User: Fold this.
Amino acid sequence: MGDVLQFDDVTVRRGEKAILDEVSWSVEEGDRWVVLGPNGAGKTTMVQLASARMHPTSGTVEILGERLGSVDVFELRPLVGLASAALADRIPGGETVLDVVLTASYGVTGRWREAYEDLDTGRARDLLAAFDVSALADRYFGSLSEGERKRVQIARALMTDPEILILDEPGAGLDLGGREELVGALGELAGDLASPVLVLITHHVEEIPPGFTDAMLLREGRVVSAAPIEQALTAENLSTTFGLELDVQRYGHRWSARAASDITAEARYAHDSGISARPF
Ligand SMILES: Nc1ncnc2c1ncn2[C@@H]1O[C@H](COP(=O)(O)OP(=O)(O)OP(=O)(O)O)[C@@H](O)[C@H]1O
Ligand SMILES: [Mg+2]
Assistant:
């Protein structure tokens, strides 16, 4: 299988600033990528390129073997499912949840859509069920909680049966229970061989679902590491990425990170009190 996404020396310049600086990245069939980096690192800019919503200033971007700039982006876009805060903001609050998912397919089925209507409705309902939000089908999107909205958005992004699913910070604004439910749902998606290639953007290693295979770490528009997840998520790489000394741990199939200074404080506490503060 060829590459699903291929970035070669991609630079995006805005004024004097290179918001992406010679980024190279190769995503293959079956991959589940997490893209980590601090605010302003260039993650959403990468998403814009990978979903055919922006062109690079220099370098080349290939999506499913088609080079951006030499292909009709409107043919590519339905092949890339995208869920992001910016897209959610454009969904009218007065639209029902079922319609929010269903309308994702309008651009694809076009003038023949009447013939597809029942099929589409069935698929939209299946997707709502898969993300455990069937009961919300007739509610207005504007009346949902943040966690419910995130699930509906992912269902919508999957409606066109895309080859690639990109989620830009799906965990933002969720409480602990909401985050864990989302991580569980995304873990199931990652484990399903029928799922599209997944790209998950996040600030937190705690949000990496089980089954994610690779990680890209971005800082100030540059790649710190893009490799299989165990190789990429080292304390050194994470510290460079976020600009502070971090310790990273893997517990089973989940990850956790915290400031290295906290570990020193913990060791001092354990020494002074004569007890271990580390329950693991
Ligand atoms: N049109 C633009 N003109 C100038 N600067 C821009 C433009 N678009 C993005 N930027 C800048 O590029 C940098 C990267 O932005 P981007 O949205 O890709 O970051 P991000 O990694 O997604 O950050 P966050 O984690 O906060 O979402 C930021 O400093 C942003 O201000
Ligand atoms: Mg962003």
Q: What stands out?
A: Residues 3-243 form a domain with the Rossmann fold fold (CATH 3.40.50.300). The mean pLDDT is 91. The first strand starts at residue 3 and ends at 14. The pocket of adenosine-5'-triphosphate (ligand 1) is lined by residues 14, 19, 37, 39-45 (CB under 6 Å).
